[in-house]
Amino acid sequence: MRAMLVVFLALLPALLAAETFRTEAPSEFDRRFMENQIQSLDDIASLNLGRHINGNKQNDLEVMQTLLDRGLIKRDETAKLQGMGLVLGELLRKEKGLFWTIYIDKLGRSRALEIPGKREFVFPVTMISRRYEAGVDVDVREVYNNAVQIVDEIQDKRGWH
Hints:
Blueprint: H1 2-17, E1 22-24, H2 28-49, H3 57-69, H4 78-96, E2 99-105, E3 108-115, E4 120-122, H5 129-133, H6 140-157
Antiparallel strand pairs: 1-2, 2-3, 3-4
Helix pairs in contact: 2-3, 2-4, 3-4
């Protein structure tokens, strides 16, 4: 019994440090929230640029870059910047066959894209906001291409293709 206790205590730090998470399907509230964030960006683009976020990769990447380049989205407008991440996520979802999930861990709830059958995730919602809020000039196409590369590497290493 004492030997088991010693082993348990020795393993305890590793067990506590292990990342544990769970996922759940996005709720109707989550879906509406995501749609509203994208719609908010579309409204800004329509009003200021005469263009729309429409699900076309070339168009959407250009519109988001223009919004940033013209300062129409400020560095402290986290919700709008995360809306850009949702647009990136939608483009990734369609191009790479991913699906939205809610990723829950000790830090809270996050919207993530799950790679089917892999239990691996990408987190596009903050891909633009974290960089832009930190003062980095963001190249939206580069962020998107890097995300595609990450997904490709995960899919390739797991025998997806």
